Amino acid sequence: MGRVVVAILSVLLCMPLAWGQEPERLSLEEALQIAWQRNPRLLQARQEVEAARGRWIQDRALPNPELEVSATELSQGLQGGSTVGDDSIALSQEVDVLGKFWLRGKAGKADYQATQHLLQRVWSEVAFEGNQAYNYLLLSTQRIGVAREVLTLTRGLFDQVQLRYNAGAVLRNELLRTQIEAAKAENAVLEADKQITLDTAALNILLGRDAQQPLALIDQFTYQPHDIDADQLLTQALQQRPDLKAREAAIRAQRNRWRLALSNILDNPTVSAIGTRETGAAGKEQVFGLAIRWPIPFWNQNRGAIREAKAELTKREVEYEAFKRDVGLEVISAIAEAKLAQRQATVWKTGVEQANDLARLASQQYREGDI
Questions:
Q1: Which end of the chain is more exposed for a tag (fewer CB within 10 A), N or C?
Q2: Beta pairing, strands 283-293 & 270-280
Q3: At how many degrees (to 10) do helices 242-263 and 100-166 cross?
Q4: pTM: predicted TM-score of the whole model, two decimal places
Q5: Which residues contact 35 (CB under 8 A, 6 or more apart)?
């Protein structure tokens, strides 16, 4: 508890003069636009997308050719060449076989698509948190208004009790009770004001801005009941959830890596074009030819890499099916919470109306001396 008090005092005491500035008027739509541009988690997710795009580009790159030049004697300089022996030049290129180039590209592309879906997932989370933070601040703003109204009423009631106590119409315990209620109402105003400070800081941080930026929200709470179709929402979640799409893309990427591991049983050959100048007693003679170097998969048949890639693919497929079931559970839970909230809102609305009528009636009766 002490740590909480210290943290709250630190926030309140360290507020600079920025709180004296004109508050920025902000709608929920504007807040979400700012979050899309400046939220740190979204900025990091965008860089992950760029990094995946770079890896995809690199996966599609062909191996560089190799140039080899040899001379047996340089006593006459580079232009004179060797007086005896051979001079040669060779240009070599590694060649992808069995579709390895395309498999690497497909795997890299699927990884890139997975990061794009994860970016959308992060945006969904940030948008939800932004909506929640905005509504919390809006609720705190309305709560302090109610708290101030209650404080005004309790002070008015205390003044009435004070007058009646002075007239000898009520006992001292009635006066003390109304005095305690007024103190409680004043403390509720202080608590609500503190919560506005904390909720404003939370929203600003979510928007990637300084926590001390003053805000004035322009939207209002609106309640409208909705018909909930559980089957439609579940189908929509399974089709549109970005985290599900990201896992599907990751499975495609791993499947292509498994196929690439199978292709790597046969190593890539290296094709070389060779030009040779032979110098001997009979003079100089130029010879051109081709060479192919191709490892034979006798000892190493890439079995370990194939087994690892296949196991990773199976693991991702199992995780995907389990995650789909988790999504279904989340949808069912969200629907149950939404239905409960709608019922509670109806009950609370009726209760608030009845409580307002009762408060007005009690205040009138107290003024008239009936109670």
A1: N
A2: antiparallel
A3: 160
A4: 0.79
A5: 42, 126, 127, 130, 206, 207, 208
